[in-house]
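idk why but the lab printer keeps eating my pages so im just putting this in chat instead. protein + uracil:
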Amino acid sequence: MKKNFHLIRHPLVQHKLTLLRKRSTSVTEFRELVSEVAMLMGYEVTRDLPMTTETIFTPMERMRAPVLKGEKMVLVPILRAGMGLLDGMIQIFPSARVAHIGIYRDHKTLEPVEYYFKASKTLRGRDLIVLDPMLATGNSAIAAVERLKSGKPRSIRLMCLVAAPEGIRAFHQQHREVPIYTAAVDRKLNAHGYILPGLGDAGDRIFGTL
Ligand code: URA
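predcted complex ->
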């Protein structure tokens, strides 16, 4: 498998992704499914987080026990569709911090335009997980990661549901060292920058703005 690229093939993830793709899936179901898939993928995305040990006391005796090493992780949803992945991730990382980044795609140029950024004062030394369900052209994710790198985090990971080959290529051309985690690699982009077969507009399906 390509370096820094992880296709998550877990049967539960794959089954739920198929439900997400169906056009008959309602907004209510879509939201729940996105959350569930995020939670399941969260295990894989964080599999290699650094660990340390600390001394604890069980009711029986003292022991050295494993714990996550370092500062609290930061989840970075790219607005607005990235918000759909946030709940599921927070279920498994209840103490994670959240940095919001607002980027939209100009429909004519498909280029990213940043309109909002709110993170804690420093990202230095933190582990960041960028949440973006659809890696299409890759432009928004590329711009988001560029912005986040200036905060000098310890690591950055990109988590999406569906990726287009074009988006993977473009993203890794700019950010080779940032691992991509996705549940599917689809066929291609259409002329409007939508993924085929994809699942449609993730933001519209999560927020019911169809
Ligand atoms: N964004 C989406 O929501 N869907 C696509 O197919 C591409 C970008």
